[in-house]
Amino acid sequence: MLGFDRITFDPRIMSGQACIRGMRIPVSLAVNLVTHGKQTTEILEEYPDFGVRIH
Predict the structure, then answer these.
(1) What is the DSSP code (8-state) at residue 7?
(2) Which of 16, 25, 37, 50 could form a disulfide with 11 if both were Cys (CB 3.0 to 4.6 A apart)?
(3) What pLDDT is recorded for position 6?
(4) Could you give the number of structural domains in the chain?
(5) Which domain does 11 fall in, by range?
(6) Residue 1 to residues 13, 18, 34, 35, 51: CA-CA distances in angstroms?
(7) What average pLDDT does this structure show over 39-53?
(8) 22 within some domain
(9) What's the pLDDT band for 2 if we cut at 50, 70, 90?
(10) Considering the domain boundaries, does residue 1 fall inside one?
(11) Quick one: average pLDDT of 10-23?
């Protein structure tokens, strides 16, 4: 679809919102965290599952 292998769209998960593959975390949440000035370390403290996938 868009060529991003870590982003999935599934109508059964999070009402079809774009999500990080294997997680029920919408891409919009990750984008909002960064947009609002959160540092990588702060994001990882709140969402440790990002650790392997964020880099």
Answers:
(1) E
(2) 16
(3) 84
(4) 1
(5) 7-53
(6) 17, 12, 24, 25, 26
(7) 83
(8) yes
(9) low
(10) no
(11) 91
Q: Token pair of 42, please?
A: 């702060």
Q: Give the span between the Cα atoms of 10 and 18, in whole angstroms.
A: 8
How far does the chain reach from its first CA to its final CA, in angstroms?
A: 22
Nearest to 49 by CA among 36, 30, 34, 32: 30
Q: What is the CATH number of the domain that holds 22?
A: 1.10.10.10
pTM of the model: 0.70
Q: What are phi and psi of 17, to 5 degrees?
A: -65, 150
- Domain presence at residue 2: no
For the segment 33-50, the average pLDDT, to the nearest whole number, is: 91
- Domain membership flag for residue 39: yes
CB atoms inside a 10 Å sphere around CB 39:
10
Token representation of residue 34: 């960064």
How crowded is residue 20: how many other Cβ atoms within 10 Å of its Cβ?
19
